[in-house]
# Entry
Amino acid sequence: MPLRLIRAEKADIPQLVDLYFDTFKSPLVLRLKPDIPPVREWYRKSLESDIEKPHIRIYKVVEAHESVQATDEIIAFAKWSSPHTEPPQENPTELPVDGDVALFEEVISKAGEKGMKIMGEEEHWCKLLDTIQTV
# Structure
């Protein structure tokens, strides 16, 4: 089965949300982001915001057909943040309050600290491979 890697579009976001929650089922992830409607809505809004940012790349993998349509089943996706000089958002997407917010903040903080320890201030393309999942 040949596959195609292409940029995701806003119309793909509902499938990306479904794929995310179908993929990440570990006890830790479910504690941070339980698979319930308010958290799905939070993730949808997060992706909608990210897909508009010039430094964020969201790609999808679909089976290769003669033409790629928004209705093709997405079998994987990934999100990268490229180096950028834009200031951080003053109002970042709020954390999902239906999960364990304190643990979520701790995990994000430790991931950020580890990234700084490894890369420091050096610019690099794959600043963070935010997500990658497959069915």
